[in-house]
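In this supplementary section we document a worked example of the pipeline. Step one takes a protein sequence of length 344 as its only input; no multiple sequence alignment statistics are reported here. Step two produces a three-dimensional model, which step three serialises into structure tokens for compact storage. The input and output of this example are shown verbatim.
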Amino acid sequence: MKTACSGNVWGPYQKRERQASKASPVRQCGNGYGPSRSRVTTRSRPGSRLCAGAVGLTSNGVTSSPTQNGAAPAASQSVDPQLVSLLQKVASGGLQPETAARHLRELGAGYQQVMDFAQVDTWRAARTGFPEVIWGPGKTPEQIAAIMSRLAETEAAVVATRITPEVYHQVHALLPDVHYSALARVLSLKTPGKRKQERLPGTVAVLSAGTADERVAEECRIIADYMGCYTFKLPDVSVDGLHRVLHNLPAVRAADVIVVVSGTDGALPSVVAGLVETPVIAVPTSVGYGAALQGITPLLSALVSSSPGVSVVNIDNGFGAAMVAARILMTASKLRRIALAAQK
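The serialised model returned by step three reads:
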């Protein structure tokens, strides 16, 4: 077996690649192959490397497409409002140059240091379309307040989940502008003047089997709304009173994504998925008597659903279900824009 191309192991693939290159010549670039003039062909082989310049990173960390000659795309002409604000503070004397230099380094790195306990992801929205959300348990009220304050410098709204009433009161003493949903255990802070999260086309329906599931259902609704989704709830529609679902079936079928929150036997997601053509996301909850095993039984029930295509998130994970729903709507919106562009 022979080796070639700067130590990359080609082995039995070498002869095949040479034969393929005669049939469809491509331009060699670095240690791999670059795009041909007529099309881009990606080959997988052990030890191969991507052509340098095939994938680039923009200034905000988002992967960009290469130009026709393989060079990195030109930098965006837009001005970063954070950078402008930083320079204005230095010019007015409100910020020391050393502090500004540290902020510039953090902006370029894609995260910002919060004292000695956190590094908030300032590129999260640019990469995924959605900003960072704070997980409350395990953090002190002072840490939560500090992280929310730092995120509020760049985001129109900041959200923390699983916040107890006791922690809320302590955070509120530090940040009087925070809002709290005791049912969902969600803490939010809105920042006037910042660009709001883009509203997504489509609707998310949040169904819950019983009143005891409402805490998880409301967390899902609030997070989905925060991520730009239009939502509505249909509570207390468990399978032991199926007529409640059937009575509201036109509204359920009109939704573009359906989240079903259910504990005990976890049967509701399968029933709903058998009545609609839209994506169904099952959220098992820890509600139920002993054999419900604190959510294990409805989790397994959703995983082995006889209705094909049911997605399942973790136990009591209303946040995760909201994120799945938002990603579905964001992808649908992207595909719609592509289809409309193709028609022009």
